[in-house]
Write a structure and sequence with these properties.
Layout (H helix, E strand, L loop, with lengths): L2 E5 L4 E6 L4 H10 L6 E5 L5 H13 L2 E5 L2 E7 L7 E2 L1 H4 L9 H8 L1 E5 L12 H9 L3 E5 L2 E5 L7 E3 L5 H11 L5 E5 L5 H12 L3 E3 L5 E5 L7 E4 L4 H14 L1 E6 L7 H10 L2 E5 L2 E6 L8 E2 L11 H9 L4 E5 L9 H7 L3 E5 L2 E5 L8 E3 L3 H13 L3 E5 L2 H4 L5 H7 L3 E5 L1
Parallel strand pairs: 2-15, 3-14, 6-7, 10-11, 18-19, 22-23
Antiparallel strand pairs: 1-23, 1-24, 3-5, 4-5, 7-9, 8-9, 11-13, 12-13, 15-17, 16-17, 19-21, 20-21
Helix pairs in contact: 1-2, 1-7, 4-6, 5-6, 6-7, 8-9, 8-10, 8-12, 10-12
Bound molecules: uridine-diphosphate-N-acetylglucosamine.
Length: 418
Amino acid sequence: MQKLLIQGGRPLHGEISISGAKNAALPILCAALLTDESLQIGNIPVLRDIETMLALLNQMGVSVTSDHNAPGITLSAKQLNNPIAPYEMVKTMRASILVLGPLLARVGQARISLPGGCAIGLRPVDQHIKGLQAMGAEISINHGYINATAKKLQGTRIGFDIVTVTGTENLMMAAVLAEGTTILENAAREPEIIDLANCLITMGAKIQGAGTDVITIEGQSSLHGAKYSVMPDRIETGTFLTACTATGGEIRLNNTNPYLLGAVIDKLVEAGAQINVSHNQIHLTMNLQLQSVSLRTAPYPAFPTDMQAQFMALNCIGDGTAIITETIFENRLMHVQELKRMNADIEVEGNTAIIRGIPHLDGAHVMATDLRASASLVIAGLIAHGQTTIDRIYHLDRGYENIEQKLSMLGANIQRIN
Ligand code: UD1
């Protein structure tokens, strides 16, 4: 198994380019299921989760090709002969559930392994199922599989009981081929939902209100092929900004979108960073004493749960005491135990962590437990005195493209070993 070795204590300096957004690319790949014409997608990040989704689509009958002359990859779902998502694939990536809505809409049937609990929480899919049933789908769960059929999905009004990102995306994709109009209320407002909606609109869908909590979709009889480029990854962007705020230094991030990171940038400025943005760049300088920053995660546009672990690492060496409250997932503080092995002073009470800043962390052997927890350990390694070894970095490879190359370009001493 591969590990990362980090010698801490170097400030970050230089510039790198941000990759396409994993959480936008995954639903957009599934949008290819909605048409028998080709969907050409650019700015797809090279990540384990993307490979898993392509393999899943491929075994359903979707052809995946890449051509040196055309950017990105081309998907064609002309023949969909196996609308099944098997357990082996769903268990490695919960976002596999995103095939359910498009399959029901296009071929009227799907058999998807029920995602189990995962490291960060229970994560049920009841809202996805309830919404599809309201649109007329017959759904039963047996032997660990969701078995769904629908003659023709019917547009209707659906109010989510809780705000769910992939739930909103699944129902939006189901609704674009339904008969009549669907109104999604209490919809998630994440920028990745706008990106998916824009891709679907390019394919001929009629969608209004994506990015607000009410989305209206007028069903069409078919969608057509299109070319689309995925938005930049706001969580990768936020992770590098947090890393540099923690280590000190000066970095420029290119090919990103600074306007999707308001809550994160506000907290970094509170921590002492100077940040300047232009339309697709962010420039960060950190040369002040790092201040502790308290935060509470909540759905977009509030502070993202996917940035919570990285800020936990930053707060370990902040001046003062920070309180972090995780409100989205019930078990997303597992990195705390690992940070404590590096000497961090953190107390956990329920879903809240109290972090008392100390002058420095000590390098140690630690273990990644989930994707964003891995990023927090990388940041901790960059600021620690001495060497940090991170095990189980396959979690990191699910969501960060070339992270050690990008950090090396910024001057970090980091290497991958077998
Ligand atoms: C997506 C993101 C993930 C991010 C999360 C929250 C993707 C591929 N993943 O995950 O990176 O951390 O949003 O911003 O985009 N819930 C239910 N019933 C449901 C659906 C969700 O109870 O049917 C609960 C979940 O257990 C969780 C909360 O709702 O507590 C939010 O989950 P959700 O927004 O659905 O997360 P994902 O879409 O899985």
